[in-house]
Amino acid sequence: MPSSSLAEVFIGSRLHLRMLAQRIVGTLDLAEEVVQEAYLKVVERASIEVVGKPQAFCSQVVRNVALDHYRRQKVESTYRIYSDDGELPPVAGGFTPDQLVQDRRMLAAVDQALDTLPARTRHAFELYRLSGMTQRDIGKKLDCSATLVNFMIKDAMQVLMSCPVLRTGMAD
Predict the structure, then answer these.
(1) What family, per the record (predicted)?
(2) How far is CA 115 from each of CA 7, 50, 88, 108, 164, rounded to the nearest angstrom?
């Protein structure tokens, strides 16, 4: 029966086929997976048609499966991150998901605290802290003195420092 002879040829040349797969995928573990998958394809195919050159056929199937694995690895490596311990790997920027949640809570608390300020004071603080503008430039923009801008920034900082959520978060 052709299918058993093809399976026998495959099993008989298993070491050669594994080396062929390993040259393509790189590791012995992946090569074993490739050979197992290729064996299933060979046996399935052998039941459908007669193969003239079983050794060449088995080698070609292993090569095709190995190339598929290699290509899949290349694509997955561009968007997947693996860690050795099974934990979630750090996200871009070195932050863990827990840190990101905590940072978002802190930003929400900052936003709520700044909402208690007059709009002009908040705007002056944001221009100073977020845009990096000088107090003199902020004064020109808001049509007030640099001294008044200094007091507005000081008032905003006092509101932020008095917020309990922000005090505990800043201590971490």
Answers:
(1) Belongs to the sigma-70 factor family. ECF subfamily.
(2) 74, 78, 35, 11, 16
Query: Is domain 97-171 classified as CATH 3.90.320?
Result: no
Per-residue pLDDT of the chain (172 residues; tens, 9 = 90+): 444 578 888 889 999 999 999 999 988 999 999 999 999 888 887 777 777 888 888 899 999 999 999 988 888 777 666 566 666 555 556 667 788 888 888 888 888 889 999 999 999 999 999 888 999 999 999 999 999 999 999 999 999 888 877 766 554 4
Q: What is the pTM of this model?
A: 0.46
What CATH number should be reported for the domain whose range is 2-77? 1.10.1740.10
Boundaries of every domain in the chain: 2-77, 97-171
